[in-house]
Amino acid sequence: MNKQNTKLENYLEIKQKHDRMQSIVDVWAVDYNIEKLKPLLDDGFDGNDIIEYFTIRLIDYIENKYEPTKTIKDGGK
User: Fold this and answer.
1) Model confidence pLDDT, tens digit, residues 18-69
2) What CA–CA distance (Å, rounded) separates 33 from 27?
3) Within a domain: residue 12?
4) Residue 24 phi/psi, 5° resolution?
């Protein structure tokens, strides 16, 4: 029973995280970018290859280019 509770808790945690991500980033934008990866699938790469490629690119972006969005203290005025 405990194992099932853990699986349910994991599912709910992941769902909550994904729902929050979806509320922050437009689903259309994500789907559009996924569609742009179609040539990789057509060329014979599988999903794990693409995930690996994307992970490497994302890590590079985070480590070398990412700058947090700055909020304006006066409310943008």
Assistant:
1) 999 999 999 999 999 999 999 999 999 999 999 999 999 999 999 999 999 8
2) 10
3) no
4) -95, -45
pLDDT at 76: 54
CA 1 to chain centre: 32
Rg (C-alpha) for the chain, rounded Å, is 18
Question: Residue 77: which pLDDT band, with cuts at 50, 70 and 90?
Answer: very low
- Count: domains in the chain: 1
Q: Where are the alpha helices (DSSP H) in 1-77?
A: 2-24, 27-35, 38-42, 47-64
Within 8 A by CB and 6+ apart from 53, the residues are 40, 45
Is residue 52, in this structure, part of any structural domain at all? yes
The answer to the question of residue 71 being in a domain is no
Structure tokens at 72: 């304006």
